[in-house]
Design brief:
Residues 1-106, 107-213 form the Mutator-like transposase domain. InterPro entries: Mutator_transp_dom. It comes from Stylophora pistillata. The protein is an alpha/beta fold. Helix 2 packs across helix 11, helix 2 (25-58) crosses helix 12 (303-310) and helix 4 runs antiparallel to helix 5 (167-183). It has helices at 8-17, 25-58, 125-133, 144-157, 167-183, 188-202, 214-217, 236-251, 253-256, 263-271, 285-300, 303-310, 336-344; strands at 67-77, 89-95, 101-104, 113-120, 139-142, 316-321, 324-329. It folds into 2 domains: 2-143 and 262-314, no CATH class; 144-257, no CATH class. The protein binds zinc ion (ZN). Zinc ion binds at residues 201, 206, 209, 213, 215.
Length: 349
């Protein structure tokens, strides 16, 4: 139920449609509590393990006790929309090198690891809060996806002023921006030069282009892919505005160069389908269990289900219905009769 992101009503609908007697809500809730606690425990353990392996990956030769690690942080709210009036939210921190969740919610383990690099979107509230609350110096790496998006929005904001700045041209610049960052990973100077050459390249000035430039390879037949009719842009006042915008990013090349991405966290939000926003699980402990499920699945894969059930008094039970044998995940606690059935089916308890 927790794993599938559904509630008691759905479980009962499913059961009754396959001709299996449905279960009372309180029975399901009681078992949910039992399984949920185990899942939470497992998720926390897996976070500590991921943190440990993340720490080992960042470890250098120095014998310092605290290892500086990099992590990306993102959070999701239980309520949809931009109102930000949800009372429940989940923050998760994903290790940059392992790609696994190292802590979530408010449960951060003490494992001699210090987050020294934080990747996040350009919304600066997270980083300013972190800087306020921690003495440790935290470096901010820009998240490429968000940077690309913010470039797009600043271009769209000047779109009405320039006729030649069409959607197509904006997408072209966003694409070039992405290439410039990807081709110069960890190379601050390269990112700066790459970004600075984007606008001149689009205007037919290839003096600062690198070896990626198609014009330098084949000047006669070169056409811009992505610009209208493959021709150079000509609007001079637009060029000034574009260069101004790009210059802001070029001056932040240091933050962009490591190409950190909080995509991993965003992916965790989709696993958040275990607590869908259209249903209100936020006000109960069920929400915590569901979040733990998402973390467990991210860190351990689907095997977290069987691993957590192992420690519960809930078993996979074969159930006889209408003379046929069905096997499904049973949510009853074993009593004497079911215990006998386990033996009959050769299952160990
Ligand atoms: Zn060029």
């Amino acid at each position: 139920m927790l794993h599938a992101g559904i509630g008691p009503t759905h479980v009962n609908e499913l059961l009754s449609s396959i001709n299996i007697p449905s279960l009372g809500e309180s029975t399901l809730k009681a078992r949910e509590r039992e399984v949920g606690l185990q899942v939470e425990k497992l998720a926390k353990e897996s976070c500590l393990k991921s943190l440990e392996s993340e720490r080992n990956m960042w470890k250098d030769d120095s014998e310092k006790e605290n290892v500086e690690i990099g992590a990306s942080y993102d959070m999701g709210w239980q309520k949809r929309g931009k109102a930000h009036n949800s009372l429940r939210g989940v923050g998760s921190m994903v290790g940059l090198k392992t790609g696994k969740v190292i802590c979530y919610g408010s449960s951060c383990g003490e494992k001699n690891a210090v987050v020294s690099v934080l990747v996040g979107d350009d919304d600066s509230s997270t980083i300013s809060k972190v800087r306020k609350n921690f003495e440790q110096e935290v470096e901010k790496w820009s998240d490429v996806v968000h940077a690309k998006r913010s470039l797009g929005s600043s271009l769209y904001s000047i779109k009405t002023q320039y006729k030649s700045l069409t959607d197509m041209v904006i997408q072209y610049f966003q694409r070039c921006f992405g290439y410039a960052l990807k081709q110069n990973k960890d190379n601050e100077e390269g990112v700066r030069n790459g970004l600075k050459s984007i606008v001149p390249h689009a205007y037919g000035d290839h003096s600062s282009c690198g070896d990626w430039c198609g014009y330098l390879k084949n000047p006669e037949s070169y056409k811009h892919r992505g610009l209208p009719h493959g021709k150079d842009l000509t609007d001079k006042s637009l060029r000034q505005s574009l260069e101004k915008i790009i210059a802001v990013y070029a001056s932040n090349a240091k933050k962009l160069a490591p190409l950190g991405s909080s995509q991993a966290n965003e992916a965790l939000n989709t696993i958040g389908s275990k607590a869908p926003k259209i249903r209100h699980y936020g006000s109960s402990e069920s929400n915590d269990f569901r979040v733990a499920c998402a973390v467990g699945q991210k860190n351990l894969g689907h095997s977290y289900v069987s691993q957590s059930i192992l420690h519960c008094t809930v078993y996979i039970t074969p159930v006889r219905v209408m003379g046929e044998e069905f096997t499904f995940c049973c949510v009853w606690k074993p009593n004497k009769t079911t215990y006998k059935e386990y033996k009959e089916f050769g299952l160990s308890v």
